[in-house]
Amino acid sequence: MPVLTRLIPSPVVVDIRAGALDDLGCVLADERISHSGKLAVAVSGGSGAKLRERVAPSLPGADWFEVGGGTLDDAIKLAGAMKGGHYDAVVGLGGGKIIDCAKFAAARIGLPLVAVPTNLAHDGLCSPVATLDNDAGRGSYGVPNPIAVVIDLDVVRAAPARFVRAGIGDAVSNVSAIADWELANRVKGERIDGLAAAMARQAGEAVLRHPGGIGDNDFLQVLAEALVLTGIAMSVSGDSRPASGACHEINHAFDLLFPTRAAAHGEQCGLGAAFAMYLRGAHEESAQMAEVLRRHGLPVLPEEIGFTPEEFFRAVEFAPRTRPGRYTILEHLDLTTDQIKDLYADYVKAIGS
Ligand SMILES: [Zn+2]
User: Fold this and answer.
1) Separation between Cα atoms, residue 201 and residue 295, nearest integer Å
2) CA 57 to ligand 1 centroid distance, Å
3) 266 lies in some domain
4) What is the rounded average pLDDT of the residues 193-215?
5) What pLDDT, on a 0 to 100 scale, did the predictor assign at position 48?
6) By its UniProt entry, which InterPro entries does this protein fall under (predicted)?
């Protein structure tokens, strides 16, 4: 008999609203994620203290663990500290580094993870990947998807604007990543997972076309949902393909070539996506994407994140080497340095200043 449907690995609870944090304990108890209330909560050493003060009353049975940083060692240490505590679940409460450490630690000790992100900087908050610094630079580690995602829009709105804005660039870049996937399908016969592509594309388009900004909860709701859906799209396809094409190769190139100067992931991906759309000849879409990114205060030119055009050319040229095997508009065009320079000059003209 053919397989008639498939099961999608996805969180049992997705709770995105203003004030969600205050009900965290009840939600986890009601949804049977934590019967006993025994939770291991990972927070940052700095800003985590304030959060702890606020959340502790609703989680009376929780033990709290301070996470040192975002390295593989930090995550292993965290797992070691939590091991043997007989917890129902691990809660990652904080920014991307905390969530990634908590994801890895939860996977290592065999517990489900509840992700409670405090900003919307990228789509890793609900993805099956933990990004951690290791001795060789930075690694991506496969982990189970979170069992629950709780996002309090009031908390997110209070985060530094740059960390919220960055998520817009990451979400919008889905549109370019899907175009790369379709290109690989046409040229190389790579199989597209239609459901994963639909989820990631709709997430990107919703953010791209929303007239609001990070100051209002309507917009934050759409952005948070877009980032969650993108994470699930990656689980559906089993890799990062729905959300990562030339845009992300350019982002990785910035990270690898200029490790101490790299900007936020979402800032680099948004810029990479606007340029990649131009490269593929989608000039109107590129200009529209650039306009939206600008409206949100995100960079569309390398100078806006402290890079010279020449450094950008180097990043674009290096980009295909960051993800061997991934076919995008960059591998397709296989541009020389001079071609990159010329196309960049055209792009700058097209998006206006
Ligand atoms: Zn990304």
Assistant:
1) 21
2) 34
3) yes
4) 97
5) 79
6) G1PDH, Glycerol_DH
